[in-house]
Every structure is written in structure tokens, then in C-alpha cells.
Amino acid sequence: MTYTVGVTGGIGSGKSTVADLFAELGIVVVDADVIAREVVAPGEPVLDAIGAYFGPEVIAADGSLNRALMRERIFENAAYRHWLEALLHPLIRERMITECQNARSAYCLLVVPLLVENKLTDLCQRVLVVDVAESTQIARTTQRDNIAAAQVEAMMATQASREQRLHAADDVLDNNDRELTQIKAAVLQLHQQYLALSGA
């Protein structure tokens, strides 16, 4: 299997920005969020199961999943969240493994917001945490997703704490109030390190 670097961080930490910078360097990025959207795309059998369990209102008129409504449901009710995770996580894990195995770069990034929570560090040879202060997470996410701070805090409460993520990290990229040029420089340094570790 391709040498795999797991990338994680709390909501609003800047994981996608960091992953995009690695992609610009020619590194294959396997993104759990992208895969999670693919497995519930219109026509996928999983979507029918979700509609049957949660009710037809969670399926939009165009046949896609009503993500805003689902987000509300699963963060209001832990049993709903557990049911959905039990359905989706094995499918997502299987697809992540396949995509990492098929990666055609010196190493690949596996971007998983819940890498620590879902005990997926076994899929990686190294873990990179994109780290920001919790206040920054709230500010960025409320602005990006146009949702209330209380909803962001509820999401954060279901995730590993900042301390838990940092404890799992082999490498930490500090993304607190840094310019893009600084982040690029940090990514380039990590890239050289990962090339060496992968034996490229």
C-alpha cells in the first residue's frame, strides 16, 4: 500500500486548504468527506435506506440527500447519528483503503475529520494534525457555513478535543492566523519529509 499520511483537524481548521497545497505538489488526496458524499449520491442503495429510516423529507426533490436537515437531525439525536455512522462508516472505510492502495504518487494523504474519533489511525503510517484554537474554529465555521455558533459548538462536542488530536499527531501544522505563504512553506517542508519517509 502507498505510504499514507492521515490528515485531521477540527471543523474549520483548514484541512482542505492544506490538502489542496499537497495536491498542487502532485500528491494524491483521498478525502473522507468526498467519499461520504459519493456513497449517498442519488442512485446509491444507501440513500434508500436513509430515506426509509429518517423519512422521505430527508431526500430533496432532485433525489439528493438534504444535508442541512440531516445535520440537524443527527446533532439533535445521538441515536440517529450512531445509526447513520454504523451504516456509512464501513462503506467509507473500504473505499478509502481502495483509493489509498491505488494512489499513484510517492505517498498519499488520507484526509479524515474524525480520524482520531473513529480510530482510523491504523490506516496511516503518519498523522498530521492541522491545528487551530477553538475560538478560530467557531469563527471560521459560522462564517463559512452560515450557521449559529451554538450549532458549531454542538458539532465540536461530538469530535475529539484539541488535546486528543494533538496527542495522536506525529506532525502538527499550526494554522492559527497564518498567511497562505507561511502555510505553503510548512507544507513544502512536510512534503520533503514525507518523500524521505516514503522512500521516494
From TrEMBL:
<dbReference type="InterPro" id="IPR027417">
    <property type="entry name" value="P-loop_NTPase"/>
</dbReference>
<dbReference type="GO" id="GO:0005524">
    <property type="term" value="F:ATP binding"/>
</dbReference>
<dbReference type="Pfam" id="PF01121">
    <property type="entry name" value="CoaE"/>
</dbReference>
<comment type="similarity">
    <text>Belongs to the CoaE family.</text>
</comment>
<dbReference type="InterPro" id="IPR001977">
    <property type="entry name" value="Depp_CoAkinase"/>
</dbReference>
<comment type="pathway">
    <text>Cofactor biosynthesis; coenzyme A biosynthesis; CoA from (R)-pantothenate: step 5/5.</text>
</comment>
<keyword id="KW-0547">Nucleotide-binding</keyword>
<feature type="binding site">
    <location>
        <begin position="12"/>
        <end position="17"/>
    </location>
    <ligand>
        <name>ATP</name>
    </ligand>
</feature>
<keyword id="KW-0067">ATP-binding</keyword>
<dbReference type="GO" id="GO:0004140">
    <property type="term" value="F:dephospho-CoA kinase activity"/>
</dbReference>
<dbReference type="GO" id="GO:0015937">
    <property type="term" value="P:coenzyme A biosynthetic process"/>
</dbReference>
<protein>
    <recommendedName>
        <fullName>Dephospho-CoA kinase</fullName>
        <ecNumber>2.7.1.24</ecNumber>
    </recommendedName>
</protein>
<keyword id="KW-0808">Transferase</keyword>
<comment type="function">
    <text>Catalyzes the phosphorylation of the 3'-hydroxyl group of dephosphocoenzyme A to form coenzyme A.</text>
</comment>
<dbReference type="GO" id="GO:0005737">
    <property type="term" value="C:cytoplasm"/>
</dbReference>
<keyword id="KW-0963">Cytoplasm</keyword>
<keyword id="KW-0418">Kinase</keyword>
<keyword id="KW-0173">Coenzyme A biosynthesis</keyword>
